[in-house]
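Field reference: sequence -> structure
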Amino acid sequence: MTLNDVPIAQQATVRELRSQGSIRRRLLDLGITPGTMIEPVHTSPSGSMRAYFVKGTMIALRDSESREIWVE
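Structure field:
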């Protein structure tokens, strides 16, 4: 399942990143690495972005980015 499929307030563990290039580098810099716990906490009014709690920090990702993150 992808990160985009995880319901709000439910934790998931990152399994793999399928993105490439600068997007992959950005995700890794944000601490989104295999084994990391991540929790969706809010969806934007337009529905195109979500806020996630990861490693003590709140981050926002576009849906296109969160579809490239596989979780369990």
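Note: The chain has two helices and five strands.
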